[in-house]
Design brief:
Structural class: alpha+beta
Order of helices and strands: EEEHEEHEEE
Helix content: 10-25%
Strand content: 35-45%
Number of strands: 8
Largest sheet: 4 strands, antiparallel
Shape: globular
Radius of gyration: 17 Å
Distance between the termini: 31 Å
């Protein structure tokens, strides 16, 4: 159990809420160029393992890319390799940040 202060009261959280490690085959990529295409995102991250899906998030009204997306790998080890290799790299002239996706559900 983890203890948390809230409103001056000590509360406890079940251990599954504050898990020590996130197990995910999906990574979150931020600060992408607005000109990035899904195929390009997939190609940039494919050297680290089998990419099952690469999605760029778009504005619902304009359809314009928001500058971030998700890449789903076939294994957690591949996702971790990609995070380690690509976090803080320059892609299309922009410094990108890469981390394991948290709380994102994909179908």
């Amino acid at each position: 159990m983890m203890m948390l202060m809230r409103g001056g009261r000590l509360m406890s959280l079940p251990s599954h809420v504050h898990g020590i490690r996130c197990f995910s085959t999906e990574i979150f990529v931020s600060r992408l160029s607005f000109y990035t295409k899904e195929e390009e995102l997939k190609n940039v991250f494919s050297p680290f393992g089998t990419v099952e899906d690469a999605r760029l998030m778009r504005d619902n009204e304009t359809g314009r890319i928001k500058g971030f997306g998700f890449v789903k790998y076939s294994s957690q080890a591949d996702a971790e390799k990609a995070v380690e290799a690509m976090n803080g790299r320059i892609v299309r002239g922009r410094l990108i940040f890469v981390e394991l996706a948290k709380g994102h559900k994909s179908d």
